[in-house]
Amino acid sequence: MADLLGIISANYVAVGANVNYSKGPYVPVDAASYEGNWTGKYANNDSFSIQVSDVIGFRAKVRYQSGATVKYQEVLIRDNSFRIGDSKFMLTKQGTAQIKTVMTNNGTQSLETAYAKQG
């Protein structure tokens, strides 16, 4: 049993060392860079939209919709990105964002990456 705990402990430390957490403070962002309706399509042709509103400082209100899935959330923006549910929004350049979403189909999970344009 001690060997098993030692293996788990060593792996926990090794994986934890590879995780890059942002340690910088939250700072105000340019509201115009984020606010508006963002639309795009995943590789399987499912379309999605993300509406970002009320950006004040580094806080915003977000609505995500893809098919029948609709999520509302207040988010904190840091390092040009935020999370909403199983998705991560990252501003890559003015008017373009990368969206990464964990999709679950038939008990399997996959990470889908798509790009959204600000409209």
CATH superfamily: Calycin beta-barrel core domain
SS elements, strand count: 8
Please state the overall shape, judged from the principal axes of the Cα atoms: globular
Strand arrangement across the biggest beta sheet: 4-3-2-1-8-7-6-5
Beta-strand content: over 45%
Described by strand count, sense and barrel closure, the largest sheet is: 8 strands, antiparallel
Distance between the termini: 57 Å
- CATH architecture grouping: Beta Barrel
- Structural domain tally: 1
Q: Give Rg in angstroms.
A: 17 Å
Give an overview of the whole structure.
A hairpin with a 5-residue loop joins strand 1 (36-41) and strand 2. The model has no long low-confidence stretch (mean pLDDT 88). Strands 4-3-2-1-8-7-6-5 form an eight-stranded antiparallel beta sheet. By secondary structure, the chain is an alpha+beta fold. It has two helices and eight strands, in the order H-H-E-E-E-E-E-E-E-E. It has helices at residues 2-18, 31-34, and strands at 36-41, 47-56, 59-66, 69-76, 81-84, 87-93, 96-105, 108-118.
Search tags:
alpha+beta, Lipocalin, 2 helices, 8 strands, globular
Question: Brief description of this entry?
Answer:
This protein has 119 residues and is an alpha+beta fold. Helix content is 18%, strand content 54%.
